[in-house]
Amino acid sequence: MRLWLYVTTLVTAGCASSTSTECLKDLPASCPTPVPSYSATVSGIIGQSCVSGCHTTGGVAQDRLLDTYQEVYSQRSAVLNQAYECFMPPAGSPPLTPEQRTALFGWLVCGAPNN
């Protein structure tokens, strides 16, 4: 039991962003116009902030791949929840900028189109 508690504490500490206490509540109420582009904007944000070293084959979170549009789309709820609550990117990684959050959340609110 003690080992489980220790491991849970380590995993949780490693996944919580250092900015969680100052996390913005900036989810758009509706789909913005123009719709943020996956290919031009969102894929770069995910590549830089999620895939690099983590959500890719051989990465520390390879059980939750985000290399392709289909992988991101299939996990869009988790992506939204983790980023919105500032749990991801993890502590020690640069947080998403307000501009990145606006693009990512706008794209997700619009239904995560493959555009």
Compact overview of the structure:
This protein is mostly helical and 115 residues long. The protein has 5 helices and no strands. The chain has one domain (2-109).
Radius of gyration: 15 Å
Please provide the ordered H/E string of secondary-structure elements. Answer: HHHHH
Indicate the overall shape.
globular
Task: For the record, give the distance between the C-alpha atoms at the N and C termini, rounded to a whole number.
Answer: 48 Å
The tally of beta strands, per DSSP, is: 0
Number of domains: 1
Low-pLDDT segments, ≥5 res: 1-20
Average pLDDT over all residues: 86
Give the helix proportion (percent range).
40-55%
| Structural class by helix and strand composition | mainly alpha
Number of helices: 5
Major beta-sheet overview: none
How much of the residues is beta strand, in percent? under 5%
